[in-house]
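Researcher: Let's try something more involved. This one mixes different molecule types, so please make sure each is placed in the same coordinate frame as the others.
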Amino acid sequence: MPFDVNAIFQIAGIGIIVAMIHTVLKQAGKGEWAEWITLLGIIIVLYMVASYVSELFQEIKRVFLFK
Amino acid sequence: MDIIQIVGLGLVATVLTLIVKEQKPMFAFMIAMITGIIIFLFLIGKIAEVIQILERMAVRANLNMIYLETILKMIGIAYIAEFGAQIVRDAGQGAIASKIELAGKVLILVMAVPIITVIIETVISLFPS
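Model: All components are placed in one shared frame. Result:
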């Protein structure tokens, strides 16, 4: 049964890239932009995680609750 | 050889979490959460097979399906409460995690009340009045 492991690598990649951009922007003196980039990254990742959580809850309902 | 895949996935996710945690703890938390979800999605197909076999045995034994359904619901509530509580505790909110566990226990107790009532009525009807 294949499962979607790519999401883990995607989230780790987004995290590393956001941290990098954050550092670069802060060095360039644009601290406010850096905060916005962090917020954007967190929103994107949160969207992915939310879709996974929804899938998990649907499966649990299918298997355990509503036969 | 499914267990090797799962252990490998867990190890890779742990390494990634440690890498990301230094810069952004939020992303590390998300990785941990999604790893738990993926492992469970992997397992749920097998759990469904076992449950189907149990159901077939229950039908053959002329068991009332309400009892099996209640037990399955309890297992579902227990799993989902445990999952949520562990993730919340990982994020450092032990108090909220305890409340989630309490809610799971209370909801399971509420579902068990009809069965307990049936048992007690059966026992009472055994006594000669």
